Fold Cytochrome c.
Amino acid sequence: MLSLACASAVMAAAGPDPIVATRQSSMKEMAAAAKTIAGMFDDKLAYDAAAFKAAAETIRARTGPTLIAEFPSATLGAPSGAKLQIDQARSEFEALARHIGMLATTLAAKAERAPASITDDMRMGSGPAMGGGSLLGKRPAAAEADPAKVPAEHLLHLILQDCSSCHSKFRQKSPVIAD
Ligand code: HEC
């Protein structure tokens, strides 16, 4: 009895698992990085190849297996913003984490070779799928077929879609870059 009481007192004193703060700061760092890249493509921020590379790498390093590892079962639910449903839909959660990781890896590889100033082929709308057909209908399909051929700006948009898809299902609140 006594040792049980002690154990729970220790648990209470320890507070939430530190991984919760880690994943929340990973998420914030990704939001800041995505905002930086979007700003450069929207001409709201001066383009800088090194900053683009660093931001793409920030997203790459925090998605895929890293993101999956930051959501162990015991840390889900309140007071964190991670819904308990993550556990019931693990394969969907992990598929989203891997999909965004694949896109971010592709973006980071492009950023690695980024030129000193933005070129037209980095911009949305310059991809091979532009020829014919409905823009909205065709381009996501082309992106799935070969993300390496997708312009960097378009890759960022696909990445942001994955952020939103995951948040709408697995996060308590759902703004993406807003906070
Ligand atoms: C596979 C699911 C998933 C993906 C992909 C994902 N997130 Fe999250 N995100 C979450 C969950 C779950 C939380 C809540 C975490 C918590 O509170 O412990 C969260 C929280 C956040 C937060 C709030 C952090 C805080 O301070 O509490 C921000 C900001 C955020 N995400 C941004 C992003 C951005 C930007 C992307 C895409 C580049 C992204 N997320 C991709 C699941 C995801």
